[in-house]
Hints:
The complex is a heterodimer. Chain A is α+β, with helices and mostly antiparallel strands. Chain A has 4 helices and 12 strands, in the order αααββββββββββββα. In chain A, strands 1-2-5-4-3-12 form a 6-stranded antiparallel barrel. Chain A has a 6-stranded antiparallel beta barrel with strand order 6-7-8-11-10-9. By secondary structure, chain B is an all-alpha fold. The interface between A and B is large, with 53 and 55 residues.
Amino acid sequence: MRLSDSEERRTKIVINSIILVIALYGMSRRDYVFQKTSIAERVIIDLMAPVQNAVTSFQRGISSYVDHYVTNINASTENVSLKAKIAELQNEIFSNQEAIKESDRLRELIKYGDQLERKKVVARVVSWDSADDYKVVRINRGLKDGVKLQSVVTSAEGLVGYVYRLTDHFADVITILDANNRVDGVVERLRSHGIVEGYNRGRCIMKYVNRTEPIILNDLVLTAGLGNVYPKGLKIGYISRIERESYGITQHVEITPLVNFSKLEEVLVLVYEQEEHKQLEWKALEEQLNNNEVKR
Amino acid sequence: MKTNLKDIVVPLIKTLILLFALEIVTTAIFPMIGLLNFRIPFNILLVLYLGLRLETPYLAILIMIVQYFHSFFSIEGWEMGTVTGIVICVVVSYVREMIHFSSWGMTILITQVFQLLWFFVQSILIYIQLGNLNYIFDKGWRFLPQSVIIALLSPLFFFILNKIWNIHDRGMLGDNI
């Protein structure tokens, strides 16, 4: 199909305008609380995530090899055969140690989750979000494993985040480092409330803490249990920076999460069994509110 | 100008495969080596290439498709990148006669300039959404080194993409070569 110059220009303007309108509409409708996946998203994510998983595992294997062998390659030549034998044994020991460490971590994780009355699903981190503006991890458990949207995700150290996007076999978890994730937090020592949000440089910020609250550095912050997502009493982090101005009604409080996100490998997904029922209640409430607004 | 769909579909599929490969590297390898706050946004590079080097009335659709496939790897979504990409295409259409890719240096320079424009447009969109400048400043500090790396990589990727889209290396924008 050949178009004349004027036709091309006209087509281009029309297409640009249509796509712009669709994209702007999409932007305005985008929900940063959770996202329902389309069929295409499910298929592509389920196809691509195993590749990401394989690449991650391969990369871990290479790193482990480099860390444990290549950097120690300057052994004397007379010990080559001996070294090879030792390396073989070390490899075996290393594999065993890794397995022990992993089982320890998993045991710790399950023990941690014992206190919480929710269904627990152990998952492994497969990859991170491709845009560094968003602190989101992808885990290898999805709908088929019983994970639900907005299920809480923790590690043995503390709170990780909640499930934002879900496919049959994988889930995207929006971590507490992300500015779109808001957790109702409470300072353990004083029971002072605030909203914990992702901030920068791997820290969170605790907003709306009254400036008269005598919080101090290293105070532990827990989930308050308010809102509809996080259960009460999960460890978030400790206070690592406080700024009190001579004016204003709140103070600037920064929190360092207990979870070391750079070394996050296994996580525990806490699925609330009655979540659907609860969601229906929320939906009914929202509809009621909308109806009231329409009537007005 | 590419108006035949058959000239577009096959290169587009190849571009998407390249995007998938780059996204997998970015999402799986970079965080594992400790780069949690630093990831190279290859989708920007691909959208810039399409905007800068492709002359077709369906450009907006191509940008939307690339961004849509990027959204499988990021919760960022496809919308903001699509709006930014289209705005950049409109700007490119005005400065078309002034731009050429005669050397690697020029490619790097042009890519850097248009990345700054990308950041500027996205900042406006983010400001409209959040009404907060702090996030934009924070993003800006991360964006600067990323944009330099993207610009330095651009000659290599433009070379590969030229082969995929069958565009001559030194061709001016929109030339039928």
